[in-house]
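Intended use. Records like the one below are meant for learning the mapping from a protein sequence to its folded structure. Do not use them to infer anything beyond what is encoded.
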Amino acid sequence: MKVANNWKDYRVIATGDGEKLEDWNGIVLLRPDPQVIWHSKKPLSKFKGLSAWYHRSETGGGAWQFLKKVPDNWVVSYKNLKFSLKTMGFKHTGLFPEQAYNWDIMMELIKKANRPINVLNLFGYTGGATVACSSAGASVCHVDAAKNMVDRCKENVRLSGLESAKVRYIVDDCTKFVQREIKRGHKYDAIIMDPPSYGRGASGEVWKLEDNLFDFVKLCTQVLSDKPLFVLINSYTTGLGATVLENILKLTVGEKFSGKCEAYELCLPTDEEVLLPCGTSGMFIGK
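Structure written out for the chain above:
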């Protein structure tokens, strides 16, 4: 497992009974977390500084309960990176802080590459990885099917002082975009992907991670340059273990290029001194 332990603007205060209590630069949120199957030492909802609490609905979805005034948007920093947050639908804030572990690796690889690096960020969401790679000097193509998420990425790039960075913002279905890039002959030195567990395209196409991930990663190998720097796959699908991601990378990227594959569980430290599991990542690093 790998721990994202370099945050100063974010921390997990406590966990228990299916929830996690977090401090996001002074805004304290209580959110559901299905991995937290242990009991809390005391009711997390009684925390004195609690700002908002996300309640799941038995019929699906849920809603925020605000106990204090929470800004429509506020900013957290990670090293030289800045991100705009908001209380979004389905419990999210627009950032996955455990990914900071991967940001650090990617930034270091890009800085040490001693060559221009072109990154393709698929299912790019609000652009945490895009901002990280751009700050290290890479050119980035950010792709997401949701325009509002791409707009949030633009805002995060601006907040981080990277207005002059080479970033392409694409609102598109990721599979269709990769297929067009293959036809156009465009190549990338690194690929990042954070595919959903389940999704449905504009034309009714169904995406199911267990059924589609292997073929999608194999497709993406066709847009890798002759000497890829890295390929990163993130998964938040419960039950899809690290070994699965490592095998997929070995049987796709590893079949075509020299390098090493590693997969690991991402975790966040907590004030309780237990680790909070937060999904799985697999990374190919080229030689």
